[in-house]
Every structure is written in C-alpha cells, then in structure tokens.
Amino acid sequence: MTDLSSALHLAAPEAALAAGGLVLLLTGAFIGEKSARLISGLSVLLLFVVAALTAVGPLGSAFNGAYVADPLAVYGKVVIFLSAAVAIVLGDGWMHRTRIAKFEYPILIVLASAGMGMMASSGDLISLYIGIELHSLALYVLAAFHRDNLKASEAGLKYFVLGALSSGLLLYGASLIYGFAGSMRFEDIAAFATANPGPGLIFGLVFLICGLAFKVSAAPFHMWTPDVYEGAPTPVVALFATAPKVAAMVLIVRVLIEGFGVAHAQWAQVIILISLISFAVGSFGGLMQKDIQRLLAYSSIINIGYALLGVAAGTEAGVQATLMFMTLYVIDQFGFFAVLLSLSRNGRPIRKIADLAGLKKDRPLMAVALTILSLSAVGIPPMSGFWGKFFVFGAAADAGYWMAGVAGLVASVVAGFYYLRIIKVMWFDAAETEVATDKSPLEAKWVALAAAAFCFPLVIVALTWLEPLTRAAASGVGAG
C-alpha cells in the first residue's frame, strides 16, 4: 500500500488534471454553455496550480519504471502546462468574439495536458503510447472544434487519419523493439542494446522515430501540418504549435538518449536526415504561402529541424540547447498567434499576409510586437531566436555535425525572406481599409506584448543559467 501511495504521489500532476477535467466536465454539463467562461478560468487555475506543484514535487520512478519523475520530465511538464494555460486564455477571448463559446474547449486542453505530461514522464513503451494517444484524441477533436466550418472539419479529419497512420508506425516499431529486447522499459532496452546492438533493434527504432517525427511535424512526416494549421481555429493552432511539440521533443530525448544512447551513431544519422529534409521543406515551402497560419506551419517544420540537431548531438549540451530552443520557440509562437487573435479587418480575422498592410498606422503597438517576433524568428542578434539557434548549432558542431549546422544556417537565411516580407507589408504597404473594426480581446494583446518583450537578450542570458534547465539536460543524458 505504501508503494502504491508513493506511486500516486509521483503521478499526482496527471491524476489531478484527469480528475479536474472530469469535475469541470460535470460542472459544464449541469450549468450549460453559459459556464464557458467559468470553466476556462478554473481550467487555467488548475493548470497553473499543477505546474507549480510539479516544479516542487518529488522525484523518482513508479509503476515498475513505467512512470519517471526526473528533472527532464519536470521541466518539460512545467512548460507544457503553462503553454496549455496560455492557449486556454487565448481561446476564451476568441470563442466569445466569434460567438461559439463552448465549455468543452478548455476541458479538452486539460485532458490533452494530462496526456502530454504522461509523454514527458514515460519510462517504457506502453506509457509512451498511452500518453501519445491520450493527448492525440483530445487534439483531434480540437482541430475540428469549429464544426460548422468546412475547413476545420477537413483539418480534423486529416489529422485523425494521418495520426492513425503514425500510431501504426509507432506500434510496429515498439513491437519490434520489444521482440528483440524482451522488455518495454527504456532502462532494460538500453542494457540490451549495450550487449546486443543488432540491426533488428535499430530497424524497430527507425519505425519508432518515424511515428514520433509525425508528432513534432518534422519532414517528411509533415503532411498534415499546413492543412491543419490553415483549417483549425487560430487558438487551437497556437496550442498545436507549442505544448504538444514540447512534449514530443522531451519524449524523443528520453527514448533516443536514455533508451538507445549506445546506438547513437546509428539513430543520429536518421535524425540528421530528418533535420535536413525539414530545413528544405520548411524554408522553401514557406516562400509560396500567402495565408499566415499556413506560413507558420512551414515555420514550425524548419524550427523542429533546428531542435532535432541538438538531439542528434546526443550530449548534455545538445539536450540543453534543444530544451532552451523549444522554450524560446513556444514563446515566439504564442506571440505570433496572439497578434493574429488581436487583429481583425471588417469583422473578420486577419489571415492573409496582405491583410497586414497599414498595420503601422492602425495598430502601431502590434506592428512593433510582430516586427520583434519576426526578427527573433529570423535569428537576428541579439533577439532570443538568435540565441536559440546559436546554442543548437554550437552543440551540433561540437558533436561533429557542423555540415548539418551549415545547412541550418542556409535554411535560416532562406526562411528569413518570408518573415521580412511580413515586416515589409506592415510598414511599407498601404492598407485598403481599416485593420481593426471591432474590439479586440485584451488577453491576446498582453500575450503578444509579453512574448515580444521576452525576445530581448537580457532575459535570454538569464535563461541560459537557469538551474532547472541544466538539471533537465543532465537528467536527459543520464547524468542526473
């Protein structure tokens, strides 16, 4: 009984989110749609409380190693839960402005957060799969949340079908790994790989990597990303671009470095190849886009390529660079989507790059914020995006993958064109009509301004010295 209570204490964050989600669901069912704002507020409060408890909670493993609470999991879950809370805040204003307020929206995010937390704490292949499916089921519904919109329904269907395909690849790889290693636990798999590094185990790992690459929308497993980003509601896309990617990246670090660290030379080649393809698809594919959300989809593809370079290094510096890059990436993405949610033209949300024309005159503060965020995304020093890429490329070069780092720099230059085009349209093109014709939600403005403020170097320098980040990276390579 003591062991069970200790295990439940370790898994308290996910248990609290699951129980809280069910209580909120019952509350919404009894009160009705008018409870949407109340449910949103309670969901945000729940996520903040769980994030705080996670940060100071106990460390250890439970359920025979299937659940791991270590510094890597703690850091990832704090970022995930806070990101989910911001997504609910952005979505609440959007739902009331579009008059489709539904109390299920924040509840789905809470339940998805429980799955993402499970992903970050996975200690074996079964908990890995449970976490992925738990958060994916909620995300499928969120993608089609605006069910009266044809594009949203199409986005949800595409995400569901391709998600099922990726789950099949992941399960096939997991079954091969279990068949050769005889265990589901990452620790046992690592021990077996050390003694018997055979091609069958690597073959299964490649399939597992393919399934995980889908979750982070890395090329060539990115097929769903542009269409889902374009069709899903804007606050839902803001969630897709942030928390699930952090969860999947933490999971990739845990699987590859903790479970298959001895086979680094083999899987690093696959990760480098995925990074290079992501560079090409993300940089050149974004050049032709006119829809902002679709453009941000290609931006996410190239940025995941950068993050994977740190994973490919297989070192503590590489893991730390990846975690730092993903944290800064999340802040940038929330800034972009918050700007979009704070703007409208003739009562309709801004979706096209051309719609940003004249923004410097109508919304100068938002124009400045979007300019800062764009320069950060390009990687212009001394913005946060520059430091994220600097540490990732440095870790890759130290590990001997300097050619991949050079390819990333070239891709960054190419991708800089579409960010600079946004700046050019805002500051130099004349608007045909007023940019803003209705009252914009204050929460979106504050998120946009906060994200832009975080892009400045003083905060980023402080971030590099954060002890939780260092301990998370050490834990990721087995030094914690």
TrEMBL record:
GO cellular component, one term: plasma membrane
Broad EC category: translocase
NADH:quinone oxidoreductase/Mrp antiporter transmembrane domain span: 122-413
Catalysed reactions, semicolon-separated: a quinone + NADH + 5 H(+)(in) = a quinol + NAD(+) + 4 H(+)(out)
GO annotation (BP), single: ATP synthesis coupled electron transport
Alphabetical keyword list: Cell membrane, Membrane, NAD, Quinone, Translocase, Transmembrane, Transmembrane helix, Transport, Ubiquinone
Main localization of the protein described in the UniProt heading: membrane
Name of one Pfam family that matches: Proton_antipo_M
GO molecular function: NADH dehydrogenase (quinone) (non-electrogenic) activity; NADH dehydrogenase (ubiquinone) activity; quinone binding
Enzyme Commission number, as recorded: 7.1.1.-
Regions that span the bilayer: 12-31, 38-60, 72-91, 103-120, 126-145, 157-181, 201-224, 236-257, 269-288, 295-315, 321-343, 364-387, 399-420, 446-466
Transmembrane helix keyword on record: yes
NCBIfam families: NDH_I_N (TIGR01770), PRK05777.1-3 (NF004440)
Assembly description: NDH-1 is composed of 14 different subunits. Subunits NuoA, H, J, K, L, M, N constitute the membrane sector of the complex.
Protein name in the entry: NADH-quinone oxidoreductase subunit N
Source organism per UniProt: Brevundimonas bullata
Lineage: Bacteria, Pseudomonadati, Pseudomonadota, Alphaproteobacteria, Caulobacterales
The encoding gene: nuoN
